Amino acid sequence: MSFWRRQHAATQWEENLNDELRFHLEKQTALYVSAGMSPEDARRKALLEFGGLESVKEDCREHRRTFWLATLWTDLHYGLRMLRMNPGFAAIAILTLALGIGANTAIFSVLDAVVLKPLPYPQANRLVLIWTDIKNAGQTRVPSSGPDLFDIRHRSKLLQDVGGIWVGSAAVTGNGEPEQIKVGQTTANFLSLLGIPAAKGRLFTAEDESERSGPVIVITDGLWRRKFGGDENIIGRSLIIDGRALTVVGVMPATFRLIFPADASVPADVQAWVPFRYDLSGAPRDLNYLRPIGRLRSGATLPQAREELHSIAAQLRAEYPVDSKAGIDFEAFSLQQDTTRETQPAVLALFVGVGLVLLIACANVANLLLSRAGLRHREIALRATLGASRGRIIRQLLTESVFLSLLGGVAGLLLSWNAMKWLLALRPKSMVLLEGVKINFQVLGYAFAVSLLAGIIFGLAPSLQASKTDLNETMKGGGRGIVSGKQRFNSLLVATEVALGFLLLVGAGLMTRTFARLINVDTGFQPDHVLTFQISPPESRYPKDEDHVRLIYQLKKNLEALPGVESVGGVHLLPFDDYANWYSYYWRPGAAPQDQNTLLADHRSITPGFFKAMGIPLLAGRDFDDADNAARRRVVIVDESLAQQMWPNESGVGKELNVETIHEGDFSRATAVVVGVAKHTKYLQLAGNGRPQIYEPYAQSTREIMAFAIRTTGDPLALIGAVRAEVAKFDTNLPLAKVRPMEDYVREARAAARFTMLLALALAGLALALASIGIYGVTSYSVAQRKNEIGIRMALGAQASDILKIVLTQGMSAVCTGVAIGLALSLLVTPMLSSLLFGVRSTDVLTFVAVALFLSAVGLLACCIPAWRAMRVDPIVALRYE
Question: How many other C-beta atoms are found inside a 10 Å radius of the C-beta of residue 22?
Fold first, then answer.
């Protein structure tokens, strides 16, 4: 039905209603006239029996199904007029709601991007990440070996395909400036398994894994544009990687990124992919470095796949009872859920936090509406006198509330837009999914729903209160009875605001203490005044281990000669780097085969001087020197954790230890002599101790990537130019990567906790401000309503101190009640934050006491201003209107 037809039907209905009522009124009037009454008296009596024509009409209209639609525009128009008549009230209410709704929208956009939005792969819900558990070594979430991957691929019936990746580093030369990039070595099916086709060319095929085929590479859109200027004829051209020419067979779309969990060491900024060109199935079974990923078959579920993987692991344990498979098991996790595993608790906690902020905002606006209802009681009473039912009054007031909330929602969207810019500026690099934060249809829909719900929440109670109008009292001019019953409800709202604010302040306090502990945690090294950079000598120009050693040691010697340099050391991977660290077994000499695969430690290849450059104390023994080369007996330095584990209450220096090592690219096991014990150092994360450390001389265990740490006497950044020049003297085609102070690595390790802490503090500050305004507003309103009472008390001899006591007691009773409720709620809720905390208990007494005292002090301050005004009430002025 068209708009005009609906309007015509409504008009016709009104005319019919008037005719019907007129007929019944005239019939009743005629009946009284025939009984002997005068026409005037008969009509008057008929009208009294009807109870008022307008009231009857209103009742009839409300029984129409479309009545609420017919009156909606009228209610909205009237609500807008009322807001224009009270611009101060409207501005405060809209700003309060904008803060609550804007914060909710901003955090929901984070929740949508990080948790709710599927990963940018087709049918991403079918992608599973496979981890290895080595139970006999107490290790979980370990990479897999090549044979493991092939066993899973060939034995699984529920996984449609299984692929793997390992990320390394390589130098790109020949097209512009040399550049070091991250390169993923993959099985041929890895990229196609993710489900995104190449934007240009093709992905790998099984033939590309064969050594008989030419070396090929697939690159990112960014590398294509950077090195080839976006040449459309890129397919078939060569890219020089580590001195070898690789044929470009494909370019991935510009939006493609690898999205894996942080501990999978598969960085999102991989720039190229090459296929493995050797037999993975023939690699050592205890060489775990691959990150397997699988795709479920249609109809298969993750729990079913897990059971199948457990069964495959049991078969391997039976087939290799004394090998490294003795304690092996496989676990499968949804790639989506595993990627958000670490960030999801923080995001959900923040989402709950903004929900509490919105409730505080709603309580504030509800208080404003209750205060305003006291000024509108005559208007409401007049509406009721003219025939408006209580439901009609409630609907009118709710319409105004929802309209007000929608205006707040629009303002909140503008605030959330700027808040998201702030969020992205603070985003830790590890939170890759936060790059997708934006205002989309889901976020707009959420903002609208929250605005609508908020309007109902804060408008319902004031509407119900305002509609309970005593017509006789109001029309006689008293009206005080209308508001006298609202004090307890106002106090309840204040207590609710304080309780919710207490909960948010406790959460922010716990996160702040966590961050403080992370700042003060002992990393085991001194990151200040240390410049770092990374190189990856290409195999084509440095084919042998001695070539690598000569380059690294000579470069180290030249860097030590630079002005302002105190010491220089090299290490395979720096602390908190994003590459996968190599860790392997160690055991006592003479241990049985089954006992040689129970203890795991990080193995780090270092040069002499590394400990001094990084500020890592040597607790016993000596550092490596240039004489510790491949021709000499193998030596190692262990950290205090390993020494205490292997030789408790003894010196580890001079003891023998069996370790795994690398020589000419081959892994081998050898017995080494411990020549030193170093302080335990945190390499992977600040929280927790991590695995023990075994350090090997670089000359005895070379690596394809080497990082340098240069301790300086001044600003480390001032040394960058000299370092670049020194490296260029050796090889102009040897690019430097990650040229940055060591403090940057430590700062990034703290970034996630800092991000969560800042957001928690922002929410807590917002909640505190809103709660303070609410306490002040309610106390001020109470003083204004009790001005006559205060005047009478003062006229009867009450002192200013007595008035102060009365006002403060009333205001602080609600605050103290809120603090008590908030304390109880916090004791129940904060244990859920345990996974986000470090070095502090979820029920930390200091935090709880500090928040209680601080919130009470803020509440007292908010009550003091209205109390001061109450003390200055003039009894004569107050009683003049009595």
Answer: 11
